[in-house]
Amino acid sequence: MRTIELENVENVRDLGGIPVGEGRVVQSGLFYRGSALSAPTQADVDELFVKRGVCCVVDLRCGWELAAKPNQVPDGVDYLHIPYYDLEKVGIEYTERAEGTKAVGPDFACEPTHFYRSLSNRLTTAQMRKALDEIFARTQSGRTVYFHCSGGKDRAGIMAVLVLSVLGASRDDILEDYLLTNVSRDKRYDEMFARFLRLSDGDEKRAHELVVSHRAEPENIAAFYAAIDGEYGSWDAFMRETLGMTDDRVRAIREACTVSLAREASAISSARGTRSTSAIRVTRTAGSTHVADAVGTVCEACAISA
């Protein structure tokens, strides 16, 4: 099962095992997607950074989300903030509210398909390229990356679409991974209802409609594909010219980050837990939350990259 059940980090899964054609699959243990790491328990930290050896975290959230809920990332782990929308860092922010809602501070509810279409703008796709470059620079050398947004559905979902497309996954398999988000999301109905109730000014009917409309749905991904085709001419042109995925580069990435199905099955059944088992300590300092490695580096790959 690719889904990873953590105590206080939602919607986490390994992209490993997804078919990419020619009898190959995405290598397990390289690409993890999920929600923000703002309040992981000690067990969550150990699972991600010790057992699974995550050596880089790519945060796709905008600046106000990061300021409100900063990540807890261990020393020795690369932390990269590459938002899709952020007025200061990207030069653009998303401000379109769903009908019948209001903003509460910087928070507001969007209309999902409109948001997905908006991601085709060239400032945001330049950020997508930066994130992909950082992700593949590490995974091609066997280092593990965790990329996330707030809940792990929309921005992380699109990053997974891009990663899996480069690796050769079919659109059906990409969609299947995207829809797995609903397994986690549907368990959090009360939490989401409370948020949307605030944003709909106490309208319970509208709040419920927003919870339902903000599930992971096929039309969201379809809207993104259509917007990319409209802005860049075709998906292939977008991948090649905007994201820099030339034939030679794609070939090298696939060679490094995918494996034969037989090899993947063997790896899964073989001994696990070969990474460092040193404990990582979560500490809090004045004005910030900090995660420190109690006895040194998190894993061998992190020691190399630090």
3D architecture notes:
The chain is α/β, with parallel strands linked by helices and 306 residues long. The chain has one domain (3-305): Protein-Tyrosine Phosphatase, Chain A. Helix content is 45%, strand content 15%. The strands form 3 sheets. A 6-stranded mixed sheet has the order 1-2-5-8-6-7. Mean pLDDT is 89; it is low at 273-306.
Descriptive key words:
six-stranded mixed sheet; alpha/beta; 14 helices; single chain; 306 residues; three-stranded antiparallel sheet; Protein-Tyrosine Phosphatase, Chain A
Largest sheet: 6 strands, mixed
Number of helices: 14
Morphology: globular
**Number of DSSP strands?**
11
Distance between the termini: 31 Å
Look up the CATH topology: Protein-Tyrosine Phosphatase, Chain A
Q: Can you identify the CATH superfamily?
A: Protein tyrosine phosphatase superfamily
| Strand adjacency order, main sheet | 1-2-5-8-6-7
Radius of gyration, in angstroms, nearest whole number: 19 Å
Q: Any guess at the CATH architecture?
A: Alpha-Beta Complex
Secondary-structure-derived class: alpha/beta
Give the class-level CATH name.
Alpha Beta
Write the H/E string, N to C.
EEEEEHEHEHHEHHHHHHHHEHEEH
